[in-house]
Amino acid sequence: MRRGIQHSIYLVIPVFAALCLMAGCSSYKSQLGDAKEYEEARMYSKAFSLYSDLLAQKETKEALIGKKRVVEAIIRENYDGPIRMLCMQEKHREADQLYSELTVFVEENKALDVKEPFGLKEFILQSKQSYCEGLYKKAEAEVLSFNYDGAREKLQEIRSFFNNFPNLDYLESLCELYPNYYLATKSMEEGRMRDAFKALKKIESIDPSFKDSKQMLENCLKTGRITLAYVSVDKGNVNNDVEMEMGAFVVQSLLENKDPFLVMLDRDYTSSLLEEQKLGMSGLYDEKSLIQAGKLIGAKYILLGEIIEYVADQKLNDYGLKKGFLGKTIGDSKVKYRQWNKKFSLQIKYRISMVDAETGETLFNAVYPLSKVSEIEWAEYNGDYKMVYPGHWNWELMKTGEDHVDVSKYAELQKLFKQKPLGNELNQLRTNSLLELSGTVKRGVETKIIELTP
User: Residue 288: its pLDDT value, please?
Assistant: First the structure.
């Protein structure tokens, strides 16, 4: 009986498996039919999804061919047609975006041996070319009607598609050259030489041979140029070396100025000519002599530099003998060393005046005061100072409870031993102060120069 039941089970299993297989086949065919119905109804997205699911279950020739048909239909209806329509509507950025999506879609389905529509890429390129040619003609018209901003906008649009579009650089340069040329012309007529200079330099950087811009630039500089001659006014109570050094620093600082309208005349040549115009022993120049001297040297303006106060001082302070040890312990030999301090001070007042060499009028007058103090401290020891440690003791020949070595200040003391005056500290302070002062003078003169050359 039991064997009969087992035999029946063995007979049922194959039958059940066959029924399941038949049911699976029936389901696959049903889904395949659904996919075809979606395809025929032009519902390509759903058809594409069903064909993809079927191929994931079992790769059949019918499913492969069906999916390829759907992919080609999607390319045709969702990409090819819309892209061409966008190009005809001159919506090239949207067309480019859709074309990028197309290339991704084709790549994802390359196993089906599908390709992008024949000639589509060339169609897009030709459409852009025609669009840009039309834009270029419109930009040319804008230039001719002096609407340079409108022309630039169209040219930028062209460059976004074709960086090497024919004559694009040329038309773009005209959009810069003409506005700057008109600005330079108007600025020169109104006496605004600095504005004219900027516009003409812009033209020079683009096309130095444009119209008569080169000659205009020369005329602009010639008209707006300010020629300066510097003269040191001798006070008599100030060392000549100080006056000469200050004058040299002022002239040098102004020579370093990048202002194209400022020209400094040779100081030595200027001084020798102006010396002939000096009045007696006063060290001053009167109006008549300044005008005459200015004409002699070709200066439009004369800078009169005068040190009206100069006081330099140095004071030596002896801090006396200090106590220490030749080692780190109170058991080491006791020694003495001397400590010094030297203080340097400088008081300067400098006056600068700008005089019109044609009229004798004083255009600019300013007094610049400067006060500086510096000092140096050092120590001296007759022996090997590297052994000396600072400290304290009351009796040289005996120890007491108050004896101690200040090891923490050893480095500080060693620095004092190495730091000795060279003898030129006051001169160095003077040079640094005059340099600083000349920089202040330069800024004041530059401000006036800009006022004189608008």
Answer: 67
Angle between helices 267-275 and 240-255 (to 10 degrees): 130
- Are 214 and 274 in a shared domain? no
* Alpha carbons 111 and 362: distance in angstroms, whole number: 90
Boundary residue ending a domain (196, 224, 252): 224
Instruction: Kindly state whether residues 411 and 431 are assigned to the same domain.
Output: yes
Give yes or no for a contact between 299 and 228, defined as CB atoms under 8 angstroms apart: yes
Are β-strands 301-325 and 226-232 bridged in parallel, bridged antiparallel, or unpaired? parallel
In the prediction, which pLDDT does 258 show? 85
**DSSP helix/strand/coil, 369:** strand
Rounded-to-integer distance, Cα 347 and Cα 368, Å:
11
Residue 353 maps to a domain:
yes
CA dihedral 246, 250, 253, 254 (to 10 degrees): -170
Q: Which among 372, 447, 381 is positioned nearest to 414, based on CA atoms?
A: 381
* Domain final residue pick, 118, 152, 183: 118
The pLDDT confidence band at residue 290, using thresholds 50, 70 and 90, is: low
What does the buried/exposed string (b/e) look like for 371-380 if buried means 16 or more CB atoms within 10 Å of the residue's CB? Answer: ebebeeebbe
Same domain, 98 and 180: no
- 400 found inside a domain: yes
The single-letter code of the amino acid at 204 is E
Residue 284 has pLDDT above 70, yes or no: no
Query: Which letter, b or e, does each residue of 266-295 get, where b requires 16 or more Cβ atoms within 10 Å of its Cβ?
Result: ebeebbebbeebbeeeeeebeeebbbbbbe
SS3 (DSSP) at 73: helix
Q: How far is CA 115 from CA 48, 100, 105, 431, in A?
A: 17, 14, 10, 81
Domain ranges, residue 283: 227-452
Q: What is the pTM of this model?
A: 0.65
Number of CB atoms found within 10 A of residue 404's CB: 13
Instruction: Convert the pLDDT of each residue in 13-65 to its tens digit.
Output: 444 444 344 444 568 889 989 999 998 999 999 999 999 999 999 889 999 99
> Do 241 and 167 lie in a common domain?
no
**428 pLDDT tier (thresholds 50, 70, 90):** very high
- 34 and 183, same structural domain? no
